[in-house]
Specification:
This protein has 7 helices and 18 strands. By secondary structure, the chain is α+β, with helices and mostly antiparallel strands. The chain has one domain: Lipoprotein localisation LolA/LolB/LppX (outer membrane lipoprotein receptor (LolB), chain A, Clam). The strands form 3 sheets. Strands 5, 6, 7, 8, 9, 10, 11, 12, 13, 14, 15, 16, 17 and 18 form a 14-stranded antiparallel sheet that branches. Strands 1-2 form a two-stranded antiparallel ribbon. The N terminus is likely disordered. This is DUF1329 domain-containing protein.
Length: 460
């Protein structure tokens, strides 16, 4: 039985100073010196836990391991690095009480909602991949120099995350989550499955081209300012929306600029600027079950919520999720009634940061509260629980991340968003039956591809 890990308390004086708009102090030289030693270069605890159920960080691989055959930047489906691994045990509705301290409220609710079918196969923990040296160097520099500004909506660090490898406040953790080291170019055709409570599926399909400025090779190490990212999404399914394109530009600092977006309507052949893009606007192709700011579990302007940091805890989350992304996986097998088939999942016990956002008085959003569980090794949100305005648990979501050899970092893969009341869910970012998966770091995207004029040209 694993020992319970106590959450690290958060200093309320730090949270108050952020709300007042003051900068947060950098860490000391002594604290920063822990990076690359007792901490990994991006701030995770390098040691394992007491009973070994969380292994020590090895970081033995950078990029493609020697035993894996893989063609870089070609959109090849992920290849399982650990094909011989078998589940150590499974968590089920019958034994979940034994592991309750390492489950989220949403995970527990899934067992209660689907007691006969929902399972969590738990595998040996693996922490074998590391970041490029240049990212470690930027993280160390940020630890010593970066500060939150403008009420926590921006920071003074350097591009090529992580901004706050030794975080002291909730919005520092949120900044790390919003600015992880990720692909600087991403091109994918992905499917979306809106799975009703009776198991029937309504399909959506989008082509996405994303340009992440802060991790572009020519930008890494420069001051964190200007635009963070560009995105364009075109609808292929459903047929009634085919030919619609949306382009957006994301600022680094939401106190100084807002997300801008334009949409091309194939019916009128016109481009119009969207007055608001993000927050709880419905995500296309999801039947209203997913909001735009739920992509990657949380994205965009965080100012509608008051954020609390509950420290770290040990928790079972999806990790090293290669098998689910195999080209051999068929949607008919994966997308079962109520939830995706557990046999394709891989959970590991890992340490996560626990970040809670409560809707501010006077602000509007479909979710009154959201709780995010952020993997300490990747700084990416892996699990999210969402509550309605009455404080009742409404949705549970999780993302299957894997280490992508194309970028030497972790990629957000297929995700599932569950409506616990309706018993329905959305399978998001599905690539299993596409000819190609994500084409990462091909370097084929430029900012001039994300303007209203470029959007109009795409629709012709």
């Amino acid at each position: 039985m694993n020992k319970t890990r106590v959450w690290i308390p958060v200093m309320t004086t730090i949270a108050m100073s952020i709300a007042a708009g003051n900068a947060i102090a950098k860490v000391s030289e002594a604290e920063a010196a822990k990076l690359g030693k007792e901490l990994t270069c991006v701030g995770a605890e390098a040691a394992g836990n007491a009973d070994g159920s969380i292994p020590a960080f090895s970081g033995k691989w950078l990029g493609k391991p020697p035993h894996v055959e893989y063609t870089l930047h070609a959109g090849q489906h992920p290849v399982d690095v650990y094909p011989e691994d078998k589940p150590l045990f499974e968590i089920t509705a019958a034994n979940m009480d034994k592991y309750a301290d390492k489950l989220s409220e949403g995970q527990k609710a899934m067992f209660k909602r689907f007691p006969d079918t929902f399972r969590m196969p738990v595998y040996q923990g693996r922490r074998d991949f590391r970041y490029p040296d240049v990212i470690c160097e930027v993280a160390k520099k940020n630890a010593l120099e970066a500060e939150l500004i403008d009420g926590g909506l921006g920071y003074t660090g350097y591009k090529g995350p992580v901004g706050f490898p030794i975080p002291k406040a909730p919005l520092e953790v949120l900044a790390n989550m919003n600015f992880p080291y990720r692909a600087f170019t991403e091109h994918v055709v992905r499917d979306t499955a809106d799975v009703s409570s009776n198991g029937s599926i309504t399909w959506g399909r989008q082509v996405n081209k994303n340009l992440n400025v802060v991790t572009s090779p020519g930008e890494v190490g420069k001051p964190m300012e200007g635009l963070m990212a560009y995105s364009i999404s075109g609808t292929l399914l459903p047929e009634r929306d085919r030919g619609s394109f949306t382009a957006s530009q994301e600022p680094v600092n939401f106190a100084k600029a807002k997300r801008l977006a334009w949409q091309y309507d194939p019916g009128t052949r016109r481009v119009r600027q969207l007055p608001t893009y993000g927050f709880d606007s419905p995500m296309g192709g999801t039947g209203g079950k997913m909001t735009i700011d739920q992509d990657r579990l949380m994205n965009g302007d965080p100012s509608r919520y008051e954020w609390k940091l509950h420290g770290k805890k040990e928790m079972y989350i999806p990790a090293n999720a290669y098998r689910i992304h195999s080209k051999s996986v068929k949607y008919a097998d994966l997308l079962t009634k109520g939830h995706a088939k557990p046999d394709f999942m891989r959970y590991e016990l890992r340490r996560v940061w626990v970040l809670e956002g409560n809707l501010k008085e006077g602000y509007r959003h479909a979710f009154g509260k959201r709780v995010l569980f952020i993997d300490e090794d990747t700084w990416q949100a892996s699990v999210g629980d969402y509550y309605d305005q009455r404080g009742q648990l409404w949705q549970h979501a999780f993302i299957n991340h894997f280490y992508a050899f194309d970028l030497n970092a972790w990629q957000a893969g297929t995700a599932f968003y569950h409506d616990l009341n309706a018993g329905a869910y959305v399978g998001f970012n599905l690539i299993q039956e596409r000819d190609k998966a994500w084409v990462l770091n091909a370097g084929d995207l430029t900012p001039d591809m994300y303007t209203p004029a470029a959007l109009r040209a795409m629709g012709q």
